[in-house]
Amino acid sequence: MLKQVSKYWWGQLLGWSVYFLVNVFFNFTLNKPNLHAAVIYMIIFTMCGIASTHLFRTLLNKFRGWGSYNFEKQLVIFLVLVVSTSLVWYFVYNLVLDYMVGNRPKGKNFLLNLVDRGYLASFAISFIWWVIYFIWHYVDRNRTTQVDRLKLESTVKELELKTIKAQLNPHFIFNALNSIRALVDENPQRARTAITELSNILRSSMAIEKVETVSLENELNIVKDYLALEHIRFEERLQVRYEIDPDTLELQVPPMMLQTLVENAIKHGISRMVSGGTVFIASRLNGMEHEITIENTGQLVEKNVVNGHGFGLESTRQRLSLLFGNRATFDIRNKNEATVEARVVMPLL
Amino acid sequence: MKKALIIDDERLARSELKKLLADHPEIVVVGEAVNAKDGIEKIENLHPDLLFLDIQMPDKTGFDLLAELEKSPQVIFTTAYDEYALKAFEYNALDYLLKPVEPKRLADAIHKLHQQDEKDRLAASGGIRTLLSENDQVFVKDGDRCWFVKLQEIRLFESVGNYARVYFEGNKPLILKSLNALEERLDERVFFRANRKHIVNLRMIEKIDTYFNGGLLLEMKGGEKIEVSRRQAVKFKEMMSL
């Protein structure tokens, strides 16, 4: 605040002293008569100028956030203010002069008087002053919005990185590698497929930053690979069911979103049950909406996920809102005492 | 020879570890458990000397399992990369193996066990003991910190409701065991019931003073002052032949 004020006053002082000196210089070089009086008039005129432009600024600041008005509205406000403040300036100046010099010759009518007694000058100077003021603010605002935009961009980048990190769940990767190593002797054929599945998952989790959306079909392939690997680990403790409407396969979804939710279902649901459980993935059309649900055996623990605020869930929300704004919804709840349901509803693009 | 029990909820992880242990004939895998509950039962039945223990298991973690044991066998933790578990290991200086287990790391861990055995060579006879000897270790967990404590390092057990407070070095965490249950299992030549609330380690007594009513006042090596009731003081003097 203090810095702003001092900048403004510096500008005022600098501008007006330049104006004053230039005028005095011209009066001096052009050898005008009664230079003395002219300088005194000039001082008064300048004083009044400072006062009226300051009045202009004070009035303008009554319009909070004038910077965000549209251009026409700004123009109207400025013109009204410029005309009125320069009028004030003119009258005050003339009053002071009349008081000092006594009655000076008056014009025939009010309008001529205006022209005669320097209203044009005060208006022109006010106008120039306003233009400078406006440009200053315009530039300043642009600079701050640019800074804001950069900040926003870096936040988004950070979020992306975090998501990627969250998706390359190291615990899963090393567990998978461990089971694959065990499979090498036991079932070499299955071990080979498992390596393919794992590389598919790694590949797609690295591609996440390159694409905005993928088709549900692609996403499902990844999820199937992922579940196949988890099935090697959990064996009969993990059952999987699908109910996918074929019409939804072509629809676009955020990459790795379904994968994150399925991973959550296993990490917080199935892996905590001694006898394991079922993951049920469904995708259907609901009027003009695409609904995906992931159910898993287990229960949300209140303290862990109140309304789903784990990082995976948070990033799901954010990515949905980046893509669909507020037209997509995501919630996670206990469907009954043995099942958790996560539900994503997206508009058909 | 060491009897080992593998506790892990994944069959493949267990079979992989067994395969690796085949190179170490001195370790005999006597059983496998698929979760914490199963693990506790098998420990009671098979009396293993060594546990290979997974941290993340359904229902209860490996740490929970250890906290329920009366005495803990030697433990080597196994885990896939897991930030939380790694922190706990580093912080508490526990021995752990990362899955997939590197054969050399496994050999190192086993080697370390043998070195420890050398130190404990003076311990009591083998076989199944009902009493806890001073070389037995208990697993103690207190918030984020956990320890394997040898009984000989414990100065004092103090009754706190259903729990017992364990005094060793500068720590005094709680364990979920009643003082009476402890007394039954502790070797009375080492651990003495001084009064209703305290069991003291006789080798950790700094000073003995007479107290009114024919009782005694013991000052432990940690500075704790423990009163010995009159009835117990008679017993105490007999034992110490004062």
Topology:
The complex is a heterodimer of chains A (349) and B (242).
Chain A: H1 2-29, H2 35-60, H3 71-101, H4 110-116, H5 119-167, H6 170-186, H7 188-207, E1 214-215, H8 216-234, E2 238-244, E3 252-253, H9 257-269, E4 277-286, E5 289-297, H10 311-324, E6 329-336, E7 339-347
Parallel strand pairs in A: 2-4
Antiparallel strand pairs in A: 1-3, 4-5, 5-7, 6-7
Chain B: E1 2-7, H1 11-21, E2 27-33, H2 36-46, E3 50-54, H3 62-68, E4 74-79, H4 83-92, E5 96-98, H5 103-119, E6 137-142, E7 145-150, E8 154-160, E9 163-168, E10 174-175, H6 179-185, E11 191-193, E12 198-201, E13 205-210, E14 216-220, E15 225-228, H7 230-240
Parallel strand pairs in B: 1-2, 1-3, 3-4, 4-5
Antiparallel strand pairs in B: 6-7, 8-9, 8-12, 9-10, 11-12, 13-14, 14-15
Helix pairs in contact in B: 2-3
Task: Quickly describe the structure.
Helices cover 64% and strands 13% of the residues of chain A. Chain A has 349 residues and is of the alpha+beta class.
Description:
The complex is a heterodimer of chains A (349) and B (242). Chain A is of the alpha+beta class. Chain A folds into two domains: 157 residues, no CATH class; 178 residues, Histidine kinase-like ATPase, C-terminal domain (Heat Shock Protein 90, 2-Layer Sandwich), CATH 3.30.565. Chain A has ten helices and seven strands. In chain A, the strands form two sheets. Chain A has a five-stranded mixed beta sheet, with helices on one face. A two-stranded antiparallel ribbon of chain A has the order 1-3. In chain A, a hairpin with a 2-residue loop joins strand 6 and strand 7. In chain A, helix 3 runs antiparallel to helix 5, helix 6 packs across helix 8 and helix 8 runs parallel beside helix 9. The longest helix of chain A has 49 residues. The mean pLDDT of chain A is 82. With 242 residues, chain B is an alpha/beta fold. Chain B folds into two domains: 122 residues, Rossmann fold; 104 residues, OB fold (Dihydrolipoamide Acetyltransferase, E2P) (Beta Barrel). In chain B, helix 2 crosses helix 3. Chain B is elongated. Classes of the chains: A alpha+beta (349), B alpha/beta (242). At the A-B interface, helix 6 and helix 8 of A face helix 1 of B. Chain A: One of its GO terms (cellular component) is membrane. Chain A: One of its GO terms (molecular function) is phosphorelay sensor kinase activity. Chain A: This is Histidine kinase. Chain A: Keywords: Kinase, Membrane, Transferase, Transmembrane, Transmembrane helix. Chain B: This is Response regulator.
